[in-house]
Design brief:
The protein has 11 helices and 11 strands. By secondary structure, the chain is an alpha/beta fold. Strands 8-7-6-9-10-11 form a 6-stranded mixed beta sheet, with helices on both faces. Strands 1-3-2 form a 3-stranded mixed beta sheet. Strands 4-5 form a two-stranded antiparallel ribbon. Helix 5 (88-105) packs across helix 6. The longest helix is centred in the middle third of the chain and has 22 residues, at 155-176. The model is unreliable at 211-234 (pLDDT under 50).
Length: 369
């Protein structure tokens, strides 16, 4: 096929996408497609999409539609710039699992050999990446299937700004035209793009080094270093930590969480932490006053019930006369919640593959990724 014929194939795909999926078609307008000889299939640098002439020529029209949306989603969901230090091939596989689930859910056709893991398709890419490692799952991409290139012109900040604007405009266009809204299945991924979302470590550190009465104004001397630390007023912060041992939390996640907790105790000696293990019951508390305290062996293995921990905390607060405290709960979120919710500041640290963050009836939830 000539280049003109190939470009007509791409234009046709955009038109067909517009009639079937207006939101995705609007996003596609923000990604320029071009032909290249140095790639085997199709790929994106986070802003533009590149096509192998030979690959494009052998696809059916339906497959062109599917591959176009596949690459548009990689770009729009910032898969190129969200990788960070993660292993590139495994990250690409995780991204493909999520994207191919969305493409399939939109009723479009994927080329033969497209990587799928249906039970994980509703999770965020970071969760899928963690699940691949946790379960030692090895999935391979089709030949030439590595399609996440080095970030394009402008780097991360420029790409993020470009797609933030594109997603906002796509939402406005489809709503104004009465052609629907954001397609189902994008919530978990789009949620990860919100500026307010921090990684779980940032949340944990923020919660454990600050309470409403323990700190006052911002120490502006540290702004230039990118640190947002507030001035300590009182001597200690009491924190109640619970780790789900019902079988949903793997050894790797448990070690990661405990290591971070010990790091915080080492850096902030004013923190006093009480640790529980919990399944359908709560086992503790175990006082941790420094990073050198011995961590007790985990107990549990049954079902999941969050109520015993919060009941124990409320009793402890009453007995010890504690004015303010924080609860941090590491879990996958599948269990029985207290009703009514306790009047306790709570951070849920949710394991990969766990309950949607919006499913937690109280407190604040963040992914352990």
């Amino acid at each position: 096929m000539t280049d003109l014929e190939l470009e007509k194939r791409l234009s046709g795909a955009t038109l067909r996408l517009r009639s079937r999926q207006p939101f995705f078609a609007a996003l596609a307008l923000f990604a320029r497609s071009s032909l290249r000889d140095d790639i085997q299939t199709a790929a994106t640098d986070g802003r533009d999409i590149f096509w192998s002439r030979e690959f494009l020529a052998r696809l059916t029209p339906a497959e062109v539609d599917g591959v176009l949306l596949h690459e548009v989603l990689h770009a729009a969901l910032l898969h190129v710039v969200r990788r960070g230090p993660r292993e590139p091939l495994a990250w690409n596989v995780a991204c493909d699992i999520v994207v191919n689930g969305i493409v399939s859910g939109a009723g479009l056709t994927l080329p033969k050999g497209a990587v799928r893991k249906k039970e994980w398709e509703g999770f965020s890419v970071e969760e899928v990446y963690a699940l691949l490692d946790k379960h030692a799952v090895t999935l391979t991409l089709p030949e030439g299937g590595e399609d996440l290139l080095t970030p394009g012109p402008g780097g991360r900040e420029s790409i993020e700004a470009h797609w933030k604007q594109a997603i906002a405009q796509a939402k406005t266009l489809v709503q104004a035209s009465g052609q629907g809204s954001v397609p189902a299945g994008l919530d978990r991924e789009l949620g990860g793009l919100e500026p307010a979302r921090l990684n779980w470590r940032s949340y944990l550190w923020r919660y454990l080094v600050r309470t409403p009465t323990d700190f006052s104004e911002l120490d502006r001397r540290l702004i230039y270093r990118g640190l947002y630390v507030e001035t300590l007023q009182s001597d200690s912060v009491r924190v109640f930590v619970c780790i789900d041992t019902s079988g949903s939390i793997g050894v790797a996640e448990l070690k990661l969480f405990v290591s971070e907790l010990l790091g915080i105790l080492s850096a902030y000696p004013h923190i006093e932490a009480d640790l529980w293990w919990a399944d359908a019951d709560a086992y503790g508390p175990h006082r941790l006053e420094s990073a050198y305290d011995e961590i007790p062996r985990p107990r549990g293995g049954g079902g999941t019930d969050f109520r015993p921990f919060f009941k124990a905390v409320e009793k402890k607060i009453h007995e010890d006369g504690i004015p303010d405290a924080l609860c941090v709960y590491l879990t996958d979120g599948y269990g029985t919640f207290p009703d009514p919710p306790p009047a306790l500041a709570t951070l849920w640290v949710v394991a990969p593959g766990g309950l949607s963050l919006s499913g937690f009836p109280f407190g604040e939830a963040v992914l352990l990724v």
